[in-house]
Specification:
The complex is a heterodimer. Chain A is mostly helical. Chain A is built from 18 helices and no strands. Chain A has one domain. Chain A is globular and about 65 Å long. By secondary structure, chain B is of the alpha+beta class. Chain B has 2 domains: about 200 residues, no CATH class; about 120 residues, Orthogonal Bundle (Cytochrome Bc1 Complex, Chain D, domain 2), CATH 1.10.760. In chain B, β6 and β7 form a beta hairpin. The longest helix of chain B is centred in the N-terminal third of the chain and has 27 residues. Classes of the chains: A mainly alpha, B alpha+beta. At the A-B interface, α11 of A face α4 of B.
């Protein structure tokens, strides 16, 4: 890649148009979500669940991207250089999720239990089980932990992006070597932060329940959702003449392999979590699945089993599917929808069971959740396009770029 | 050099022509030329995989994925069938109250067998499709062919190709390289392995059958010899089993009774009423031990542990175990009695005590699990429970009678 083609690989003026469109959609979605949320007349408790769901959905895309970028540096991968800048930008976009999730965390830290029920000191005192966890389930400590998690992710993703951009015009491979040197400790920090963030943000919605594998479960879905998003973003850009010469069917094939691998990994972890609880049959562990295998959530569980695992597993098995961008994109859209359903399946059941008589009996996935996903997604996309606007979409100075451009699957 | 070569000569049947190349570019170009000339039975040999060589050679994609898929799906089905047959049909055995054929419990085995058969299919299928093992190959006749594992690139066209012509094929290859094209011949007498390998292989296969034969013999025959212990860790211990004679003692009893006139520490209960629930020949109708709130609380706790699983928390015979047995329609299940039947309510305290200690009908004895004091505490609690479920307005204290009427 020479400097002349670098100019072709930036969004240019189209970026401004796209970002305005995304922001407009986001604002409309937010207005609709706020209206729908007010219709529950529950002090926006249901709305908060939908908002958390939406924030976590877009957060997990960034976390999956962050994992991917750190992994590429950790193993000194060559094939992925042409798609790595997109991943770096998606990872650095984690700041959007941090800003949008902050009000929920502050609200909880102020002692309101409408989302995380333990945040209300009264409900903590009422339950002997929760008293044992009171040291951890403390509003201010929770807020501090959230600052640490998001601080790690924002710092790590910005550091990765900064060195990668630096490499674009660097005379030697020093920035890349610096990234590779620190990729291993970065991976450890990443793993711990994602694990505990999953415990805090999602598992503590059911504060008496615990599952040690829960963080891995959320991680598996996150990485899967990133690969689905990566396929869609790259094919979108290629459809508009960007990355056209850099990304070939071979790169789609590898993204598809990762997508397939993490579909299976998600299924493996989800089943591991379920089977141990099913087999031991202990009341303190089964409550979580009991709620999700009753009423309308039983159907959602079945949808996840088939839609998030069995069907995409069979559908993505063949290399011919992974090498046809159209098919691969269809599965990517499908799996992103399934990822949202998966997170709804985690976040929403406590909304319809947890909070006493004023709760929304039989509550399930509703329009307010879709509106929140659109609202957060609009802002998220706006920020992503803005951050990508003046940057090369290919790491043009990367020492492994020639390897990536010439990459072929055997 | 352009002389036509006979397809068989003193060196054996002609296998084909092999040409040597110096680098990836020239061998790839040659492969493309040979493909375009319409040849199909030819192969390229190189020290490392060459990107795009399969397109240059016009290779069709392999059937191996289909073989793996079929074997994987077979493994999935076989594993489920195996578990269904062994646990639900051939030897129905309930574990942890799980269904005889519970899918979640069977998934790990199913997963493993699916992976195992898929891996076998990929590994052995690759061997079969590559016609391996091959002990000798005609191409070894080329003096430099071994360099294909180091720095040599070769392209060989087999004589079996429909377009093969000993003159024109040779000329085609010679036009692509400056190295001399070499004719290779299949060795006379085939490529059988040395006889010691065949004999050794048959011997190993036969020896491998011995454990199976031993198992078959053991299953079909009878023997009076003790079982053969491969790992002997805790099978034989220096202890006496129940009912086995002990030559050390005159009475031959291995299980020693307490010496006459002794009791264990803290074990002395002198009052026969407390010990047996009987006053003379009749069941006692009064509590032989003091009853207070502490005793009732203890009785309630013990009742919850030992009695409630069958009799239910309120004593109506609707405990978890009883309900489960009813749900499963267990044929041999005798439902536990409701403690509020007139019959049970009429039982003397001593008889209730005896039931707790020694069991009745299918109810097991709990004398081993509970001390005498605890058994009496349970009896006291059962009586209180019966009173609570069968109260009359007269049981209500006079001071509260007015409230009763208000309802």
């Amino acid at each position: 890649m020479t400097s002349t083609s670098t100019a072709l690989e930036t969004l240019g003026p189209r970026g401004a148009r796209w970002s305005q469109l995304a922001l407009g959609v986001g604002v409309l979605g937010a207005a609709l979500a706020a209206f729908l949320g007010s219709q529950f007349h529950d002090g926006f408790a249901r709305f908060q669940h939908a908002w958390l769901l939406a924030c976590v959905f877009w957060l997990t895309l960034s976390l999956g991207a962050l994992f991917f970028v750190v992994l590429q540096h950790l193993v000194r991968a060559g094939w992925s250089v042409v798609v790595r800048r997109v991943a770096e930008l998606v990872a650095a976009n984690v700041v959007v999720a941090a800003v949008l999730i902050a009000p929920l965390v502050v609200w909880a830290a102020m002692g309101h239990g409408s989302l995380w029920s333990w945040a209300d000191p009264e409900s903590l005192r009422a339950s002997p089980l929760l008293q044992g966890k009171a040291a951890w389930l403390d509003g201010r400590f929770f807020a501090i932990r959230c600052v640490v998690y998001f601080g790690i992710w924002i710092g790590l993703s910005r550091w990765l992006l900064r060195h990668s951009v630096e490499q674009d015009s660097a005379p030697d491979a020093k920035p890349t070597l610096a990234l590779e040197l620190r990729a291993a400790p970065a991976m450890v920090v990443y793993a711990l932060s994602v694990n505990f963030a999953a415990f805090d943000l999602l598992m503590s919605l059911s504060p008496t329940w615990y599952s040690t594998i829960f963080g891995v479960y959320v991680f598996a879905g996150s990485v899967m959702s990133f690969f689905a998003a990566a396929v869609l973003i790259v094919s979108f850009l290629q459809g508009r003449g960007l990355l056209a010469r850099a990304v070939t069917v071979e790169h789609y094939h590898d993204l598809g392999k990762f997508l397939f691998a993490f579909v299976f990994f998600w299924g493996y972890i989800a089943f591991s979590q379920f089977m141990l609880i099913w087999y031991a049959d202990l009341p303190e562990e089964t409550e979580w699945f009991h709620v999700r295998l009753a009423g309308s959530w039983k159907l959602v569980s079945a949808v996840l089993l088939f839609g998030h695992f069995i069907l995409p597993f069979a559908g993505l098995l063949s290399r011919h599917v992974k090498r046809r961008v159209g098919f691969l994109s269809l599965w990517a859209v499908w799996l992103l929808v399934m990822h949202a359903v998966d997170l709804a399946w985690i976040v929403l059941p406590p909304a319809s069971h947890g909070h006493g008589a004023e709760s929304h009996a039989g509550g399930a996935i509703g329009l307010v959740d879709v509106a929140c996903l659109v609202a957060v997604g609009g802002v998220w996309t706006f920020a992503l396009v803005r951050s990508a606007a003046n940057r090369s979409l290919v790491p043009v100075g990367d020492p492994r770029l020639p390897e990536s451009l010439a990459f072929e699957n055997l | 050099m352009s002389e036509p070569i006979p397809t068989t000569d003193e060196r054996g049947e002609l296998h084909g022509f092999v040409a040597e190349f110096d680098d990836v570019t020239s061998v790839t170009r040659a492969a493309r030329a040979v493909r375009d000339a319409g040849y199909q039975k030819f192969d390229v040999y190189s020290p490392f995989p060459i990107h795009g060589i399969e397109r240059a050679m016009g290779l069709r994609s392999t059937h191996l994925p289909w073989i793996v898929l079929v074997c994987g799906v077979s493994g999935l089905g076989l594993a489920l069938l195996l578990q269904y047959w062994t646990n639900a049909v051939d030897y129905p055995f309930k574990i942890s109250g799980k269904p005889l054929f519970g899918i979640p419990a069977n998934i790990p085995i199913t997963f493993e067998v699916t992976v195992l058969l898929s891996a076998f299919a990929a590994f052995f299928g690759m061997f079969v499709l590559n016609k391996l093992p091959e002990h000798h190959h005609a191409l070894f006749e080329h003096p430099r062919f071994r360099r294909a594992t180091d720095d040599g690139f070769f392209l060989a066209i087999e004589a079996g190709d429909t377009r093969f012509d000993s003159k024109r094929t040779r000329e085609l290859l010679q036009s692509l390289t400056q190295h001399p094209v070499v004719a290779c011949h299949a060795a006379r007498g085939g490529d059988h392995a040395p006889s010691w390998i065949r004999v050794g292989g048959i011997a190993v296969a036969l020896i491998a059958l011995l454990p199976l034969a031993a198992a078959v013999a053991a299953r079909t025959g009878d023997t009076t010899k003790p079982a053969f212990h491969i790992v002997n860790d805790m099978d034989s211990q220096a202890r006496f089993r129940a009912q086995v004679a002990n030559p050390v003692f005159a009475d031959g009893r291995a299980m020693r009774p307490d010496p006459a006139g002794t009791v264990a520490f803290d074990g002395l209960i002198e009052d026969p009423v407390v010990l047996t629930g009987k006053r003379g020949d009749a069941w006692t109708t009064t509590m032989p031990v003091a009853v207070d709130a502490r005793v009732l609380a203890r009785g309630r706790e013990r009742f919850g542990i030992y009695c409630a699983p069958c009799h239910g928390g309120a004593g109506y015979g609707d405990g978890l175990v009883a309900n489960r047995a009813k749900d499963l329609q267990e044929p041999n299940w005798v439902p536990p009695a409701s403690l509020h039947d007139t019959l049970v309510r009429g039982r003397a305290l001593g008889q209730l005590f005896d039931t707790v200690r020694n069991g009745v009908r299918t109810m097991p004895a709990y004398g081993r699990q509970m001390s005498v004091e605890d058994s009496w505490a349970v009896v006291a609690y059962v009586r209180a429970l019966q009173r609570s479920q069968n109260g009359t307005p007269a049981d209500v204290p006079e001071a509260k009678q007015a409230e009763l009427g208000a309802r």
